[in-house]
Design brief:
The chain has seven helices and 19 strands. The chain has 298 residues and is an alpha+beta fold.
């Protein structure tokens, strides 16, 4: 992999790190080393990197709030979008947002400009790229309601625009083409009442503080809610509250949250998750599906 970087790196602003400890970039604060971690400076460089990878695996990471990297690490390029992917442009017909903007900052920008329907992003600790990929949402709203289209770079380094309808956004999932990296997203906007917007954001804050263990090392909801059911309820009713594996515990505040309390590792998170899947299945014959994206070799 070093040869590839040596070949393309001569005048690059992108930063490359070898055998990089990924745990710093993941909310769980667990995970092994990535062979190469790169913070990409701009679109052109991202395109050149992707053109040169030629079969070497790569993954993109946003804020790391919904990702688990196995302890064995990642044998490829882990790509993070840098500051140039951090721009917001309010145009006449839409709002164009860089993929590395934090959802909370998007919601604050919308509030400052009296734009409604972005309030729910104040409750999601990820980036806009991660929000589109996961169709993130909370408190009755989700990304697909306000998204128009996205700009991506594919594994050949080509830039494309993909309309929302071709992403098939559904509950915590999208059909983003394999290998595509989202570089920006276009949203619809409507003007709203400043006080109403602030009130909604405050309600979300209070609700989250009440229901979620926000000060812990966690990845939020571990499993998707099964159709017409709640994963947290099923987990609780299967007597999983209080379960632990090494340093990883099922949260007492929210049973669908796993928390890294005592220097736990990724293997323990996966083990505890699988134990929960088994217990819930034994009791209800419902198979929980991971919401968290797990990467790296077993
Ligand atoms: C305390 C807490 C509360 C949470 N509450 C909610 C909630 O209420 N609702 C909700 O929906 N989620 C919630 N989450 C989960 C998480 O914040 C969301 O899924 C978020 O959208 C993930 O964004 P991210 O940037 O952190 O993505 P990451 O975790 O870094 O990555 C998640 C996936 O998105 C992909 N991805 C990231 N960026 C890009 C990009 N630019 N292009 C292509 N793919 C990309 C990654 O490859 C990976 O597959 C919560 C998490 C935590 C820790």
């Amino acid at each position: 992999m070093r040869e590839i970087i040596d070949k393309i790196d001569y005048n690059f602003k992108t930063k490359f790190y070898y055998n990089y400890d990924t745990s710093k970039n993941v909310w769980f604060r667990t995970g092994g080393k990535a062979k190469v971690f790169c913070i990409v400076d701009n679109e052109k460089e991202l395109s050149i990197i992707l053109q040169n990878l030629k079969g070497i695996p790569y993954e993109v990471i946003g804020a790391g709030s919904n990702i688990l990297i196995r302890d064995s690490g990642y044998e490829g390029f882990l790509i993070k979008l840098g500051k140039k992917f951090n721009q917001i442009k309010l145009k006449k017909s839409n709002l164009t947002v860089g993929a590395s903007i934090l959802d909370i900052n998007l919601s604050k920008f919308a509030q400052l400009n009296n734009l409604k329907n972005f309030e729910f992003y104040s409750g999601i600790p990820g980036t806009v790229g991660g929000a589109v990929k996961m169709n993130a949402g909370c408190f009755g709203s989700e990304t697909k309601e306000i998204l128009i289209d996205i700009k991506t770079i594919n594994n050949k380094g080509e830039i494309n625009t993909i309309d929302k309808k071709n992403l098939n956004l559904d509950y915590r999932q999208s059909q983003l083409p394999e290998g595509d990296i989202i570089i920006s997203a276009n949203f619809h906007y409507n003007y709203g009442d400043k006080n109403e917007i602030a009130k909604k954001m405050n309600e979300i804050k209070i609700n989250r503080e009440k229901k979620q263990p926000l000060k812990e090392k966690t990845s939020g909801s571990t499993f998707k809610n099964p159709k017409n059911n709640f994963a947290a309820k099923l987990i609780e009713m299967s007597n999983c509250k209080g379960l632990s594996e090494g340093g990883i515990f099922v949260s007492n505040k929210h049973a669908n949250f796993l928390i890294n309390k005592q220097k736990g590792n990724a293997n323990q998170i996966e083990k505890l998750g699988n134990k929960i899947i088994e217990k819930v299945y034994n009791k209800f014959k419902i198979k929980l599906e991971w919401e968290i994206k797990i990467i790296g070799q077993k």
